[in-house]
Design goal:
This protein is mainly alpha-helical. The protein is 72% helix and 0% strand.
Length: 252
C-alpha cells in the first residue's frame, strides 16, 4: 500500500517550478565545495567543508514525506496497545485503535504523493515507506486474528501475498520494475476499508457488510497477486531476450 505496496519509488514528478529540498541541498553542497576552489583555496576543500556538505545532504532526509512515514511507524505499537487494551473487546479502545489505523492509512496516501511532487524522494523513504505500510496492516490483521475476529487463513493470504510480491519485485529488479497497477491500488484501498471496519466493534448489518468487503479484499488480493506474478514472468523473459540480443549484436 507497499507497499503498497511500493509508494515513494515511482510515479510522475511534479510540475512545480520551485526546487525541492534535495535540489537545494545539492546546490548548497556545490557552494560549499565551490568556495574552497580558486586562487586562495588552491583547489583544496577548506577544513570542515566536507562535513558541512554532508550535513546539508543529511538534512534533506527530514522532509515532510519521510516524517509522515516515520509517524506511521510510530503508530504501529500505539495501535497494537490500543487494540489489545482491556482485553481487546472494549468498544471505546477499539474506536481509538481505529483512529490510529485511519491516520496511518491517510498518511500513506499523502507521503508518496508529496515525495514525488516536491522532489522529496530519498533512499530512506524508499525503504521505510513499504515497511511502514506492511507493518500497520500486518499488526491489524494479526491482532484481529488473535482476538478471534478474523480467520487466520485470511491473515495468511493477505500477508503471504504482500511479502511474496515484495520478494518477487526484488528477484526481477535486474530486468526492470513491476509498476503498481490500478488493481493493486484498489486492493490496497479495499483492504484498508475492510480491516478498518473489523477494528471497529460493529454489529448488525454493518457487521455483515464488513464481511463482504473483506471477501472482496481477499479476492482482489489473490487476483492482483497472480497478475503481478504474470508481469514478473513476462518482464524476466523480455529482459533475458534483450540481453541475449545485445550479446549477439556485440559479438557480431
Amino acid at each position: 500500500m507497499t507497499g503498497v505496496p511500493a509508494s515513494a519509488a515511482g510515479g510522475s514528478s511534479g510540475a512545480h517550478g520551485a526546487r525541492g529540498p534535495a535540489a537545494a541541498a545539492d546546490g548548497a553542497a556545490s557552494e560549499v565545495s565551490g568556495s574552497a576552489s580558486g586562487p586562495e583555496g588552491g583547489g583544496r576543500t577548506p577544513r570542515g567543508g566536507k562535513i558541512a556538505a554532508a550535513a546539508v545532504n543529511q538534512a534533506s532526509v527530514w522532509n515532510v514525506a519521510n516524517l509522515l512515514t516515520m509517524l506511521r511507524l510510530v503508530l504501529v505499537p500505539g495501535f497494537v496497545a490500543l487494540m489489545l487494551a482491556n482485553g481487546g473487546y472494549d468498544p471505546a479502545w477499539r474506536s481509538l485503535a481505529w483512529a490510529a489505523f485511519a491516520i496511518a492509512m491517510i498518511t500513506d496516501l499523502f507521503d508518496g504523493h508529496l515525495a514525488r511532487t516536491y522532489n522529496l524522494v530519498t533512499d530512506f523513504g524508499k525503504i521505510a515507506d513499504p515497511i511502514a505500510d506492511k507493518a500497520i496492516m500486518g499488526a491489524a490483521l494479526i491482532c484481529l486474528s488473535g482476538l478471534g475476529d478474523l480467520p487466520w487463513w485470511v491473515t495468511g493470504v493477505i500477508l503471504g501475498r504482500e511479502l511474496g510480491i515484495t520478494l518477487l519485485r526484488f528477484l526481477v529488479i535486474r530486468y526492470g520494475v513491476i509498476p503498481a497497477s490500478r488493481g493493486g491500488k484498489l486492493k490496497t484501498l479495499t483492504q484498508g476499508v475492510a480491516v478498518g471496519m473489523y477494528v471497529l466493534a460493529l454489529t448488525g448489518w454493518l457487521a455483515t457488510l464488513r464481511f463482504w468487503v473483506m471477501a472482496a479484499a481477499v479476492v482482489l488480493t489473490v487476483v492482483t497477486g497472480l497478475d503481478y506474478v504474470r508481469q514478473a514472468i513476462v518482464l524476466r523473459r523480455r529482459g533475458i531476450a534483450e540481453r541475449a540480443a545485445a550479446l549477439e549484436e556485440k559479438e557480431a
